[in-house]
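Please review this one:
***
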Amino acid sequence: MSQPVLEVHDLSVVFETFEGRYSALNNIDVTINPSEVIGLVGESGCGKSTLALAVMGLLPRSHAKIPSGSITFKGKNLLSYTDKEMEQVRGTDISMIFQEPLTSLDPLFTIGDQLSETIQIKLQRSGQSVGWNSRKVKAEVLDWMKRVGLADPQSAMERYPHEFSGGMRQRVMIAMALAAEPKLMLADEPTSALDVTTQVQILRLVKSLVSQVKASVLFISHDLAVVAQIADRVAVMYAGMIVEEASVNEIFENPLHPYTNALLASFPKEKEVKKTKLTSIPGTVPNLTRIPPGCPFHPRCSFVKDVCSTTRPELRETSAGHRVACVLYDKP
């Protein structure tokens, strides 16, 4: 069996804040195999983006600490890398698409210049001596702009980020993320700010291009319906912990954790939009400076038992490829 592209093992991340110690991630385990798309879902504030920033080495060192765990990429622990070594990984071996492209693109440079820089670095690291304005780089810039569906790519090269719509800017970000032909791409809610029609177009585009460059993907979203369109496997997060993981079909057809069931019940089924009565999850995600003892979901759970308030369940395999952290599935 081929080596995983990414293995996150027992990872914990804490932030020191004025309110106290903020436990953003607690003993996270995630494995991403070659050419696999993993969907990471959960409500806002559950730690999804923190995991992506930890992998990229972008956590603020002034108040973020990693007390335990490892992040193994291509057989090496990224947590042992120096800043200079991580700079060699970011944007080439590992790329990222952020939620809001307007804050990720430099407003002072044209789209063509920004994409040229990505391609130039890729070519230089492969041993080719090229300048950002070389014919080879320009040709590849045009090719990528066509591949992401930008109209009139020659003209688009000379335009600035503010001259594009949100959907077009996101296409540029996708081109920048994949032009380097990374082994791993992290996508942090890349469609959440887009209208539904554009969202579908972007998802199809990502899926097609990822397949072409053979990249593995960690796709972050709060929307299970979005993840269903692109992911092979799904990991469900709650309060900084993964509470369930399975194939995308298994998650939708046989969800086990009460939180996963509650998420699925909160959005309409296909062709039943007018007939389905949606339910909300009672309560709110706990403050991560005061995570409840035991299972963090127990204050909101419809199946709560006495043991849930005292014992934190481990993520256990209930069937091949399906893991869940819930006492309902603990073997006696």
In short: The first helix runs from residue 48 to 56. The chain has one domain: 6-107+160-329. The domain at 6-107+160-329 is CATH 3.40.50.300 (Rossmann fold). Residues 19 and 289 are 7 Å apart (CA to CA).
